């Protein structure tokens, strides 16, 4: 081995890519699914399929305001999310440490809709930004992985710099296995390079204080600095009778809309005797969280808080670019496909790493461990995601703590996939590990549509292409792809 | 070169690169802290956003520069960095 720039960069790309890739495949897969977190939550609450979207009424809002106030007096940090085109329901939610969960209300009359308890699509959001490992250590890991991705991208460009144009045009799926994987890896990497670099960079900057806690203004999730359960100073939790009467929310909403713009308010937050009518994340490109605060007692306007200057707007622009909550459906799909291609490209990189080292190190413990981990993230993770959807429909809807049980199912299936991968990797036929997991994924993905039909009201089934059919069809397509890969692996 | 000698040489190279990666990562983190301190001193807390933007562009670039420096016996730094510069430019 000679010590040249390309060989050095190749080594850096290989190792940073492999170690970072194991985390980044999870981050990209979770992030792609989190783009449709609201829609997935909707799919996971099939009771909502019976309800038609209706406009928000003042009476309903005032009623929900009183309910939220009661919850706050019982010690919950409850807040209200207003109906949007993506989620046309009124929700009273609180943060449980991993996700925002709560009760759904009809925006027309403010009466509760009995839905099953679920973490919904927010599991993927948590998995994306902190690997479900807490806001401090989990975030720090994903931050380091994002920098690793930037390093791997530039070192990859340096390796292929001489033939970058030919690599853009060449894809030889029927050449040797290594060549075909390499072509796919390079082609996907080059075509989606701007997207991946942008996502890694904006994601790293958004959570930068996690990596540099000494420069953070807040506690940023450091262990031992968690928020108290009830931030309203001095008020005794659990004593609902002491809560002061809340002024009606509807007049406050109308006043806030006069300031921030019609249909732009998305959140109603309560803190220290004030009510904040906060701009929805989808209202503008830059995520600003502009809000108008009112007195809780008499509803009088206290202040209008807006981003003071462009320097403060930078963070909002980066969040807008990364979260794309402002985007229309086609744009969201474009991000979803780009994220999936990124995930596939990184999975391809992991497979190439194994292909390179297999001839010399196939029997070594570390190689088998690397193969186990690769199988667990490339095929085990999609299997776990699918099991989460299945668990949502198979657990009966009034099961206590069923949201936590669904999440537990996700991690149990992922752990089983890891054990299965280890058993196969440490045996004589490691390829069977990939093959069997692909077959199981295909079987469960192709039958999700019948499961959906059996476990949800058929009312309005022929009404059009709704969120339920979209999820079913997308998973069906993934199932077909897994079946194709399974057939190819059997033929090899 | 005999096979055993080649293996020895390869291992030595990999050890050197690993050391360079670990030390480079530590150096890059310290450089990031230095840059953020500079921004805080120059413009206060609001300027930190710009500092984070610069630090996250600097850190991977600096690590690659550290990895581009050739070994002591053939120190022709210019051609190495000449290839790195357009790649970084293309990305950022």
UniProtKB/TrEMBL annotation, chain A:
PANTHER family: IRON-REGULATED INNER MEMBRANE PROTEIN-RELATED, PEPSY DOMAIN-CONTAINING PROTEIN
Keyword terms, alphabetized: Membrane, Transmembrane, Transmembrane helix
Organism: Asaia siamensis
A Pfam cross-reference name: PepSY_TM
Superkingdom in the source lineage: Bacteria
Region of interest: Disordered: 222-241
Transmembrane segment boundaries: 12-36, 144-165, 186-208, 333-354, 366-390, 410-426, 438-455, 467-485
InterPro entries on file: PepSY-ass_TM
Protein name per its UniProtKB record: Membrane protein
TrEMBL record, chain B:
Top-rank taxon, per record: Bacteria
Transmembrane portions of the chain: 21-40, 46-67
Species of the source: Asaia siamensis
Keyword Transmembrane: yes
Protein name as it appears in the record: DUF805 domain-containing protein
Keywords for the protein's UniProt record, in alphabetical order: Membrane, Transmembrane, Transmembrane helix
């Amino acid at each position: 081995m000679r010590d040249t720039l390309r060989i050095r960069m190749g080594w850096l790309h290989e190792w940073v890519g492999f170690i970072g890739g194991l985390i980044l495949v999870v981050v990209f897969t979770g992030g792609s699914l989190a783009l449709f977190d609201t829609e997935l939550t909707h799919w996971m609450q099939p009771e909502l399929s019976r309800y038609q979207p209706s406009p928000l009424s003042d009476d309903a809002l005032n009623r929900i305001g009183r309910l939220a106030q009661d919850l706050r007096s019982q010690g919950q940090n409850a807040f209200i999310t207003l109906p949007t085109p993506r989620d046309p329901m009124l929700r009273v939610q609180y943060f449980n440490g991993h996700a925002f969960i709560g009760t759904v209300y009809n925006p027309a009359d403010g009466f509760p809709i009995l839905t099953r308890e679920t973490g919904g699509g927010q599991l993927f959001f948590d998995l994306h930004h902190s690997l479900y490992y807490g806001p401090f250590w989990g975030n720090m890991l994903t931050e380091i992985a994002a920098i690793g991705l930037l390093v791997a991208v530039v070192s990859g460009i340096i390796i292929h710099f001489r033939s970058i144009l030919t690599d853009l045009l060449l894809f030889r799926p029927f050449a040797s296995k290594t060549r075909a994987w390499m072509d796919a890896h390079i082609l996907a990497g080059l075509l989606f390079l701007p997207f991946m670099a942008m996502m890694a960079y904006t994601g790293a900057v958004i959570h930068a204080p996690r990596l540099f806690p000494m420069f953070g203004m807040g506690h940023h999730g450091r262990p031992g600095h968690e928020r108290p359960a009830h931030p309203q100073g001095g008020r005794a939790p659990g004593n609902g009778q002491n809560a002061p009467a809340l002024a009606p929310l509807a007049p406050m909403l109308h006043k806030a809309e006069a300031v921030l713009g019609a249909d732009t308010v998305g959140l109603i937050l309560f803190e220290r005797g004030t009510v904040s009518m906060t701009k929805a994340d989808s209202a503008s490109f830059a995520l600003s969280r502009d809000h108008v605060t009112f007195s809780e007692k008499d509803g009088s306007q206290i202040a209008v808080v807006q981003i003071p200057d462009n320097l403060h707007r930078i963070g909002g622009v980066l969040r807008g670019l990364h979260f794309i909550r402002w985007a229309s459906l086609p744009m969201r799909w474009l991000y979803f496909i780009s994220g999936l291609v990124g995930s596939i490209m990184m999975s391809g990189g992991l497979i190439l790493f194994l292909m390179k080292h297999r001839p010399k190190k196939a029997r070594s413990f570390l190689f088998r461990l690397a193969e186990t981990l690769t199988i667990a993230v490339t095929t085990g993770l999609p299997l776990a995601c699918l099991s989460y959807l299945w668990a949502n429909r198979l657990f009966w809807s009034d099961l206590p703590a069923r949201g936590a049980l669904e999440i537990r199912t996700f991690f149990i299936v992922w752990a089983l996939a890891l054990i299965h991968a280890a058993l196969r990797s440490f045996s004589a036929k490691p390829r069977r590990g990939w093959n069997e997991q692909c077959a199981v994924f295909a079987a469960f993905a192709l039958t999700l549509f019948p499961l959906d039909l059996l476990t949800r009201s058929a009312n309005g089934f022929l009404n059009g292409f709704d969120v339920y059919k979209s999820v079913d069809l997308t998973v069906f397509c993934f199932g077909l792809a897994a079946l194709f890969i399974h057939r190819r692996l059997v033929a090899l | 070169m005999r096979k055993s000698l080649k293996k020895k040489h390869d291992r030595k190279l990999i050890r050197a690169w690993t050391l360079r990666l670990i030390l480079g990562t530590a150096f890059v983190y310290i450089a990031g802290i230095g840059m953020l301190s500079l921004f805080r001193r120059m413009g206060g807390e609001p300027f930190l956003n710009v500092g984070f933007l610069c630090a996250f562009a600097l850190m991977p670039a600096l690590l690659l520069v550290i990895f581009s420096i050739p070994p002591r016996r053939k120190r022709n730094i210019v051609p190495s960095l000449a290839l790195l510069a357009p790649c970084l430019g293309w990305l950022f």
